[in-house]
Amino acid sequence: MTDSETTKILAVLKAAYPNAYKGMTREEAFGMIHLWQMQFASIPAELVMTAVNRLIGKKAFVPTVAEVKEELHDIHEDAWEMLWYHSGGASDLTEQQIAEYSAIVQALSPIEKERSGNPILTGQAYAPLPQGSTQDLERRQQHGNA
Q1: pLDDT at residue 129, as a whole number
Q2: Domain spans of the chain, in order of start
């Protein structure tokens, strides 16, 4: 995220939780911007904003970086589940929805890597399942073609 994007996200938090930022010095504000930018450097700002907005609707107190990362994990899981259900024929996603969910899964893979602590984990581990029925997938797995 850029400084500008980070500042916008923190401005939303300040508007939602004004008491949390009362008395903050300029130096503390710059430190917070730097911390958030560093923690979410590889995540698109619009996904961080989505996580923040979801948390504002649920939390009485300003969310921490860890809580935003947990919300991003939930967003990742939601997108992954939609792709999973679609691959099994359980949902009718449009090509645009598939592309959007795939982009979310890929964009949030750094959070998932960090969360798992597994440096070997790659974004390809989250690739959508191949098209076809569940039986088709099971048959390919048995023959090593999945």
Answers
A1: 45
A2: 64-146
